[in-house]
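Box 3.1. Reading complex inputs
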Amino acid sequence: MGAAIAGLGMTEMGKVYGRSARRLAADAVRLAAADAGLALDDLDGLLISHGMGGSPGIELADVLGLRDLRLLTVMNAFGATAGAMIATAAMAVASGSASAVACVFADAPLRPKVSSGAAYDSTPREFRGYGGMTAAQGFRSVNALYALAAQRHMAVYGTTSEQLGAVAVSTREWATRNPLAQMREPITLADHQASRWVVEPLHLLDCCLVSNGAVAVIVTGADRAADLAQPPVHVLGWGQGHPGNRYERGSDFGLTTGATLSGPAALKMAGLTVGDVQMCQLYDCYTITTLLTLEDYGFCAKGEGGEFVASGALGPGGALPTNTGGGQLSGYYMWGMTPVSEAIIQARGQAGERQVARNEVILVSGNGGILDHHSTLILSPAQAATTGR
Amino acid sequence: MTKPQPTVRRDGRSDAFFDAAARGELAIRRCADCAAWHAPETTGCHVCGGASLEWTAASGDAVLITWAKVHPRGDGPAQHIAFVELAEGPWLHAALDGVDSPAAGLALKAAFVGPEDGEPLLVFRTA
């Protein structure tokens, strides 16, 4: 039996204070169930993903008062988790081991009067050992490692900061049309170039937001979803790719990602090819992540991502509308639930002024670690998508 | 190096690295079973599956793979960080010292700078 996403719940996101990650997660599950037209008692599965804070765990089931669950666990593949959770829920539904599975992500790293950068910073008071020595010298943040990745792509393929800026600009253009987006003022390439260095070659506008909040979805059988409150969003295919990057001679760090494994697997399961994809919702922790992911899925040749993203293809009216809610760069940073949530909204036809007309084949990506972990979903309003692009 | 050096203390797991550094040697890990070279933080050999890695002096010769410039929030100079590829094969998380025009493939040499307090710091300079 095919699986479908029947409910979507999103709390307020951004500088949302006064609620713990656990409370936000519970609120999102309640919202998702209500959205689907289900009662909490109808749920028999709960999959949980947390941010770096480590909460919530499986106690969330008790917080929600859920009883007699047949599937309950925390999943963690970093930024690839949302796709992995939905795939796991779909398999549970297909096997009959559960019939209505809530998948939730929640995080609350922001605190009042503390910068977004500090939310994920890890500067210790003392530096100890070999690892401490590298941290002392500047290896202190994920930003630094993605900057090294971007610089390698630049050195090998000639990718430019302006091309990365094109990703920031097109993504923001979409965000101006999304009432849920945190950053809705239009930006220009000049704004991107003038924004401060986070770690050179990454400008501030190459980097995602940091948000408090939670997003949940409900996965059920496709037949049941058809009778519920919202238009079903069918899960046609899924895949994961964990290439196991080794930092040694021959490494392709910064050049390729697990999308090369994950994308073809998901498309094959759906009976589709990359040419059938009409819209992308990609994990865009940095502009370089969007560019690399598009290359690795095969929307352009390896090394030509810079030209592709600068062509106008990704923005409103472009050939491959991408991150139509503003992504993580300009929308909201709910890890892998950012692209998942926008894909659901688009597949349902509920995206208002940013709605993309051709929404039958939507590719959703997740990316975790330093380009170490990848997941893919193929979502569609149709139970079997056969359309060409 | 023009900015104040951070203080690094030993952690009991990488003391051999700092003992070698005090002698001006770059010590990395080498598999006792198959002789494959590994970075200092490696704990097992992915080539042969061996679990016995020995601290061994490397040549200190390297080439630049990729780099980034860390700009301080306040005053002070920016610092280049990098992945460098040792002649022996492993990549190291590295700080560059005095490399004004980084380029992929640039030949580098390991060096140590000794702050007044704490352990020596590994840097790479143009060869």
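In summary: The mean pLDDT of chain A is 96.
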